[in-house]
Structures are given as C-alpha cells and as structure tokens.
Amino acid sequence: GLPLRLEGVVHLYPIPGGDVVALRGVDLRIQAGEIVGLLGPSGMGKSTLLRLLAALYPPSAGRIWIGDTDIAQLGPRGRRKLRGRTVSLVLQGPAVNLLPYATVEQNLAFAARDRASRHRVGGLLELFGLGPLRHRVVATLSGGQQQRAAIATALVPGPRVLLADEPTSQLDHEARDDVVRALFDVQRNLGATVVMVTHDPVVARELPRLLTIRDGRVGAEGRSGEEFAVL
Ligand code: ADP
Ligand code: ADP
C-alpha cells in the first residue's frame, strides 16, 4: 500500500450564480496499508474526497500526496497514468463498475492492461470466491456477487490504494459481510491501503479507524463505537 496525505485541500464546484464549496480545507494522513472508513451525512464531501484521491480531477487548492507524488500538481496525462494503476475507485452501485452482459471473467480480463495484470485475474477470482461464478454473466448475479466482482476488477491493474464509495449499500446482511470480508482481504492479503465511504453502522464498527467530514473538513476521528455514536 501507499500512504495518503492531504494538506489544505479545498474543492469548489462552479455552478451558475456561485460556487459550491464541497471541501474547505482538509488535512489528513492515512498510513500505508491502513483500512479507513469515511462517514458523515450526505452532501458533506465524501464522494468529492474519494474522486480527488482517485485522481479524477485536481483539487481547487491544496496538496494530495499518494506516496511521494503530489497528485494535485499533475496534469490530465499524469492523472490518467495513475488512475486504475496506482489508485482504483469502486463507484457506488456495483453495476456501474462492470459490463453487465459480459461474464465475470471477461470483466476482469478487460481490466487487464499488461501481462502482470493478466496474471492477477485467476488469483483475484479465487480470493473473492468468484471461481465458481467466472462464466456467469454479471447481470445474472446477486448484488453482493456483483460488488465482489467490481472490487476484483478494480484490483486487476494492481493498484496500491483501493477507494470504495458505499460498497455495501443496497446489500442484505450476508452479502454485506462478504463484501466487508473482501475489503479486509484487500488490505491484509494484498497489502493495499483501503478507504471506503460508508453509512452502515455495522460496517463502521468493523473498521479500525473512522474519519468524518463536517463543514467540509475532516473532523473528529475516533474508534468505531464512540465516533458513530455522534452521528
Ligand atoms: P457526499 O459524498 O458526502 O454526499 P459530495 O462530495 O457528493 O458529498 O458533495 C459535496 C457537495 O458538493 C454537495 O453540496 C454536492 O451537492 C456538491 N457537489 C458534488 N458534486 C457536484 C458537482 N459535480 N457539481 C456541483 N456540485 C457538486
Ligand atoms: P452521493 O451523495 O450518493 O455521493 P450525490 O448525489 O452527491 O451522490 O452525487 C451523485 C452525482 O451527481 C455525482 O456524480 C456528483 O458529482 C453529481 N452531483 C452532486 N451534486 C451535484 C450538483 N449540485 N450539481 C451537479 N452535479 C451534482
């Protein structure tokens, strides 16, 4: 995994008649190989933070180090080189991350950009319990199975940071537990740094570290129980 460090990160969305201030000065450190949850009410900037960390676009101001690289300084080409390969983002809703009418194995194979990533496909199918489902068409799978396939697909290029936006929303309890286990496997077995947005108190309780965003800043950090009591 790689460490993440944010300093004074501000993000504005220009809209007619003014700017929406999504983040107003975020300072944050996440160690290499940590698994961290990001919670807080809707509209607080959680998705914005994930999209900035995923190098989808640069922040309006501030610094975002992924390892030794300040991705806020990169241009579009630099960000594109990083996306998927160094940091991978699993968007909210499993279906948007996958080709619904391709098989699980085809989805993983399409994500492979080089020999090293092609070699990862088999191991990832096994790690996420997708071996028996490899020839199933994604659209025929349950939500939990799709989410595990989405996470496995995001890992094919070998990213060292995995970001997930509400990976357990819309899942039943059993599927949710499977997905949480899968994310811990990413951290433990693959050594990746994992940052996930979650609204689910059960998921939050499992995580060793939680961050909240309030008023566009990363606020009180705490252990699962006490922190979640505030929400
Ligand atoms: P969260 O993930 O915590 O719900 P977001 O990061 O999605 O929060 O949004 C933070 C704020 O930025 C909200 O006020 C939201 O309406 C606004 N916002 C998010 N994306 C855009 C966008 N593309 N254009 C304009 N405003 C946006
Ligand atoms: P969530 O809260 O579940 O993260 P949002 O409703 O904040 O989802 O955002 C969903 C999508 O809509 C995102 O791609 C975001 O960029 C966009 N979006 C959110 N708020 C606005 C807005 N005020 N204007 C334009 N696009 C927005």
How much is the average pLDDT? 92
The counted number of beta strands is 10
Q: Secondary-structure element order, as H and E?
A: EEEHEEHEHHHEHEHEEH
In this entry the ligands are: adenosine-5'-diphosphate
Structural class: alpha/beta
Strand arrangement within the widest β-sheet reads 6-7-8-3-9-10
User: What is the straight-line distance between the termini?
Assistant: 30 Å
* Structural Rg: 17 Å
Form type: globular
Q: For the report, how would you describe the main beta sheet?
A: 6 strands, mixed
Low-confidence stretches: 223-231
User: What's the number of helices?
Assistant: 8
Helical coverage, percent range: 25-40%
Strand content: 25-35%
Explain what the structure shows.
By secondary structure, the protein is α/β, with parallel strands linked by helices. The strands form two sheets. It has a six-stranded mixed β-sheet with strand order 6-7-8-3-9-10, sandwiched between helices. Strands 2-1-4-5 form a four-stranded antiparallel β-sheet, with helices on one face. Helix 6 links the parallel strand 7 and strand 8. Helix 5 runs parallel beside helix 6. The chain is globular. It starts with a strand and ends with a helix. One of its GO terms (molecular function) is transmembrane transporter activity. It comes from Acidimicrobium ferrooxidans (strain DSM 10331 / JCM 15462 / NBRC 103882 / ICP).
